[in-house]
Each structure stands twice: as C-alpha cells, then as structure tokens.
Write a structure and sequence with these properties.
By secondary structure, the protein is mainly alpha-helical. It is built from 7 helices and no strands. About 70% of the residues lie in helices and about 0% in strands. The longest helix has about 70 residues. The radius of gyration is 36 Å and the shape is elongated.
Length: about 170
C-alpha cells in the first residue's frame, strides 16, 4: 500500500507539472506575438521622439547663442560710467538709479531682481509691490522711472542717464 500511495502522489505531481508547463508555453506564445506587433510601433515612436529631442536641442543652442550675442552687445562699460559719474560704478548696482538706496536695493534682491536688465523689464506696478513689501516708510518713493533708468544702465547710456537724473531731481518724472 505504501508503494501505491507514493505512486499516486508522484503521478499527481507529474500531471501538475506537465499542466503548468503547457499553460506557461501557451500563454507565453500569445504574449510574444502581441509584443512582436508592438515592437515596430514603439521603435517608430522612439525615432520620432529622438528627432523631436534633436530639434529642441538645436533650438536651445540657437537661443543660447543669440543670448550670448545680446550679452556682448550690452557688455558693461565701466570706464564710461566712471567718467560720467566721477566714481566707480559696479555692474548691476541698483543704487545707481535715482531713488534707490541700499535698503530698497535689498527689497528688490528679496524679489530676485538683482540686475539692471531684470529691473528694466518689470512694470512700475511690480516696483510698487516691492516697495510695499518694506512697509509704510517706503510709500514716499516714486518708482515710475526706475525701469527706464535701469534700461539706460543696461544699455550703457551713461551720459543720457546722468543728464536725466540731473534734470529730474529725486527720480520723479
């Protein structure tokens, strides 16, 4: 009896293994055919995405080279600035602008406005918002000319800036 009982269990185990293997291979063959259909589609999609990536990289390179050219056009002319103002001017020193002192410059830096170019390209309303962030004591300031003055600094128009500041005391239009 023990021998037949062992044979029964071994036979049952063998049938189970054979059934598992048949199921595995049948399921696997259907999966392979559907995957084989998807492979060319996915390869085409990869090629199109790579082409799009190359196009984006070329556009980025062109943009960077254009910005580099612009930066060269607006290279800081410290010699002319020193000659016009009679003192050394540091690049992107916002205090050169009539009406901006060290504390107001600090307020602009808190808003990540740290260059003449950045200040030249914000609105007067944004300048007013920066001033209001400092509290009531900054309400007396008039920022209406600050972006214009910053643009003159950025474009190295030192003579024009100095003349404008002399004609418009306290930076008011």
């Amino acid at each position: 009896m023990d021998n037949s009982n062992l044979t029964f269990w071994l036979l049952l185990l063998a049938v189970g293994i054979v059934a598992f293997l048949i199921g595995y291979f049948l399921r696997g063959s259907g999966k392979d055919s559907s995957e084989q259909k998807e492979v060319p589609e996915l390869k085409d999609k990869i090629r199109s995405l790579e082409a799009e990536l190359r196009s984006c990289q070329q556009a980025l390179d062109k943009s960077k080279s254009a910005q580099k050219g612009q930066a060269d056009d607006h290279a800081f002319d410290f010699k002319t600035a020193k000659k016009v103002f009679g003192k050394t001017i540091k690049q992107d020193d916002l205090k050169v602008i009539e009406g901006i002192g060290p504390k107001i410059e600090g307020l602009f830096h808190n808003y990540d406005i740290k260059t003449w170019d950045a200040l030249a390209h914000i609105s007067v309303a944004k300048c007013q918002e920066v001033l209001e962030s400092g509290g009531d004591r900054y309400r007396v300031h008039d920022p209406s000319s600050w972006p214009m003055q910053a643009m003159m600094c950025y474009e190295n128009k030192w003579k024009e800036l100095h003349r404008w500041q002399v004609e418009h005391k306290h930076g008011k239009l």
